[in-house]
Design a protein that fits this description.
alpha+beta, endopeptidase fold (from Nostoc punctiforme), 18% strand, elongated
């Protein structure tokens, strides 16, 4: 682990991950928008222990395309105080990924959207089958 690393910790029994930027001095800059405090969400700097809340720290790999550690730290510091939180469009993972790569994206949001689309497609398919069965049952009855 080093200054400028994109880090994460599992929360809510592994239901989701919370992301931030390791500042290299025992602090983390992160978007504080947790499910219990969305209204007051903002980019802030906290101690590592406060960020981890007893969870296990993990470093998020971005391959070779990331910014230099200095650029990552500068990007994170420039956003401290920002309040434009959105679970779908600007969450803690969007923040940390942006600081690290210059691109706002969230793997968690993409996975959730894909899962929701799958559920929708399956639901529509089951509903269509039920309609076909009902219509078929009327003809044959």
């Amino acid at each position: 682990m080093a200054a400028g690393d994109h880090i994460k910790v599992r929360r809510a029994g592994g239901l989701y991950s919370h992301h931030g930027i390791d500042m290299g001095d025992g602090t983390v800059i992160h978007f504080s928008g947790e499910p219990t405090n969305l209204r007051n969400a903002q980019v802030c700097r906290v101690g590592m222990a406060d960020f981890l809340q007893g969870g296990e720290l993990r470093v998020v790999a971005h391959g070779d395309g990331g910014r230099s550690p200095e650029e990552v730290l500068r990007a994170a510091e420039e956003l401290v105080g920002s309040r434009d939180y959105s679970v779908v469009f600007n969450n803690c993972e969007h923040f940390a990924t942006y600081c690290k790569t210059g691109i706002r994206k969230s793997r968690q949001v993409r996975k959730a959207a894909k899962a929701a689309a799958t559920v929708l497609v399956v639901g529509v398919g089951l509903a269509a089958q039920a309609v076909v069965r009902r219509r078929g049952g009327r003809r044959g009855g």
